[in-house]
Amino acid sequence: xxxxxxxxxxxxxxxxxxxxxxxxxxxxxxxxxxxxxxxxxxxxxxxxxxxxxxxxxxxxxxxxxxxxxxxxxxxxxxxxxxxxxxxxxxxxxxxxxxxxxxxxxxxxxxxxxxxxxxxxxxxxxxxxxxxxxxxxxxxxxxxxxxxxxxxxxxxxxxxxxxxxxxxxxxxxxxxxxxxxxxxxxxxxxxxxxxxxxxxxxxxxxxxxxxxxxxxxxxxxxxxxxxxxxxxxxxxxxxxxxxxxxxxxxxxxxxxxxxxxxxxxxxxxxxxxxxxxxxxxxxxxxxxxxxxxxxxxxxxxxxxxxxxxxxxxxxxxxxxxxxxxxxxxxxxxxxxxxxxxxxxxxxxxxxxxxxxxxxxxxxxxxxxxxxxxxxxxxxxxxxxxxxxxxxxxxxxxxxxxxxxxxxxxxxxxxxxxxxxxxxxxxxxxxxxxxxxx
Length: 436
What we know:
The chain is an alpha+beta fold. It has helices spanning 3-16, 58-72, 76-94, 100-111, 116-126, 144-151, 153-157, 257-267, 271-278, 350-365, 372-379; strands spanning 38-43, 46-52, 163-167, 178-184, 204-211, 214-221, 229-232, 237-242, 289-294, 299-304, 310-313, 330-333, 399-406, 411-416, 426-428. It folds into two domains: 3-156, no CATH class; 160-433, Penicillin V Acylase, Chain A.
């Protein structure tokens, strides 16, 4: 990612992060009473969503999902509309050719290529929105097309950063993988203040998808059908990272990263299977990316450089000249390709090189056996008083989600929000992995 672009988008985060999806909660004790397939529960820092796909048709389930979201957040549409308007505004400042109409068209192009089951869910949700088929930015409503655009924001806006690290084997204190992941999303989420005070409601969500014995946890936002981060009941963790190489953007014929990550989690049980699916030559996305994939034994990075190699990077893979790692049983990822022969968007890009160096330094300081507290410390690393703007800050001004997860004891440290100097993590477990 180019330094100037990433720096500008981090500035956007400081302004726009306060405008996404917010509202006063509706005080109704029946809001979360199960109806059929969807329940939503208010948790510390996020909404817990459970969606049961074991029976029922997906369009009806999608419609119920929309009804439940609107019930607990009555001005969900107003917040979503404001978020889209802000996304368009800031992208248009840097790229005048990117307009509201352009982003809608991008989203619809990608929508043409998604799986039918996900189309049904999206159409069901959109059917309860007030905007119908009328696309008007700033009207406080969400149309069907705007809802599609909202779901595909990372696919069509590509204003993301992100990073990841994992230790495994002898470098992990537990002997099993401990993974860290930060989502740096410059134009959201989560919240704005209500009536000028700090009583805020956001749309951060942990979404549990159930289908018989198969389960997926997605770390996304309310209303999301896809995700860029998730883990399944087979114990496979997947996270997407943007990797800019300067090519001209086109959505024509492209797949959705968000929905393919979900599909991979719903369909496969090994790292290599997920890598083969997401790296399939027939699956092309609108932006180049890395896929950070882990299980209890190891972690690998699929480098999706379509013009060169789509290959899983492992800890001892040969890297491009001048790029070094050399930490056994550990791997990291920033917004760059590093495999030998792939496009070098690493060298000279300080937001990549400096965070890479921070990962190396923090791991080395952690000694030969790293625990989850150390991984959490790494993922929250930032220079004091930098405001999250130092190029070496792993936790930075664009970070909206930070995760440290230990496979051995199903222990997750989770932080969601907009930048604060001292992020406070909550401890959770993934329910369907408690007995694994």
